[in-house]
Amino acid sequence: MKKINAFSLLICLFLLSGCWDQKELNELVLINGIGIDQAEDGQVEVTVSIAVPKANSSAGGGEIAGGGGGAGGGTYMILTRHAKAPTITKAFDQLQTQIPRKIFLGHLRAIVFSEKVAEKGIKDHFDVFLRHRGPSTNTFVFISKGSAKELLALQTELYSPVDIMVNIARTDTLMKTTVLDVYQMLKKRDTAIPMIEKLPAEKGKKPNQTIPFLNHTAIFNKDKMIGSLDDYLTRGAMWVRNEIEEDRIMWKPENEDEPIVLNVLNANTKFVPEIKGDKWSIMIKGSASGVIISSESELNVKDKKTIDTLEKEFAKEIEKKMASTVKYVQKDKKIRIFEFGEAFNRKYPKRWNKDKDRWEEIYPTVEVKYDMKVNIRSSGVGTVH
C-alpha cells in the first residue's frame, strides 16, 4: 500500500507541475524540447529548444534552429541554447544564466538522449527530471542516432523539429515511449525507446535543412542501451505488447512473384501464462482484422477456401514476426521489455512471490507460444490486382 501511495503522490506531483510556482506565463520561457549529449571532454551537454513568437524573438536572443512553423504561416521561430557541465543539473543552472526568463518545463514535449549518453546509462539524468524539473508524464522520450543537439537545431520549413518528432510518434507507426513509460520500466524491467535521426538533406540544401524521422527502437538492459530493433522487429514487439493499431502483413503464395498484402485495421493480443511444475510457458493469443490491398495475384478473394487459406497464412506471418522479436529480445539479449513477469504474477501470485527473486534466471527459459486468428473483411472485388 505504501508503494501504491508513493506512486500516486508522484503522479499528482507531475500533474501539478503545470502550476509551477504559480508564475505568470510572461515570466517564463517555455521549453518544448531538450537534448542531452555527451561532450568530447566527458561533460554533459544540454540543449533546449524554445518556441518564440517572431515579434518577440529579439528578447532573449539565441541561435536560430529552425524556420517559422505551424499553421500560423511562420509566426514563431525556434531558438536553441546549450550548455556544458559535469552534471545535467549544473548544465541547467548555466542555461538559466543565458536566458532572462525562468526556464519552465511544464510544456515540454520531447526529451532526446543521444545514443552515446544512452549507452552509458540514462537513469541518473532521468532522475533529475523526475525530482526537480517537472515535465509532464506524457512527454515523449527519444534516442538520437548522432547528436541530439543537431536534431533540435534542424532548419525545418513548416513545423519545429520537436513538433515533427511528436507528430510521428503519435501515428502508431512505430513504438512510442513517454516519461511515465520510462519511469515504470526502469522500476520493473528493461526499457525500449524509439530512435530518431535526421533524414539526409536534399541535393542543394545544407545538411541541417532537413527533418527528423523515427528509425529503429533502442533496447536497454536496465538503464543502458545495448542494441536496437529494426523496423520489422519493432513491429513484432508492438504486436507482443498489444500496441498495434494498424499494420501491413505480406504473404507470397507459392509460384507467385508478388506478395499479397493485408492492411490490418484492428488488432489485439494478450498473455496466457502457465506453470506446470518447474516449466514456465506463456501463450500470446490475439486476433486481427483487415482488408486485402492491391497485389498482382490472380487469387479470387471472394472464394471462401481462398479466404480461409489467406487468413491462416497471414496469422502465421504475424506469429513469425512476434517470434523473431521474442527470440532476439528474450534469448539473444535476455532483456525484459514485455510484461511476462506481470502476467505470471497476476495468475500465480503465490508462486510468483516464491520465485520472483529468480525471475532473471527463469525468464530466458520461458517457452513462448503463439495463437493468432485473422479475419479478412470483404474486399468488394473478385480478384486482387
TrEMBL record:
Gene3D superfamilies: Nutrient germinant receptor protein C, domain 3. The keyword Lipoprotein applies. It comes from the Bacteria. Transmembrane segments: none annotated. It is found in: Membrane. Its main location: membrane. Residues 217-380 form the Spore germination GerAC-like C-terminal domain. It is a lipid-anchor. Residues 21-197 form the Spore germination protein N-terminal domain. PANTHER family: SPORE GERMINATION PROTEIN B3. This is Spore germination protein KC. It comes from Bacillus benzoevorans.
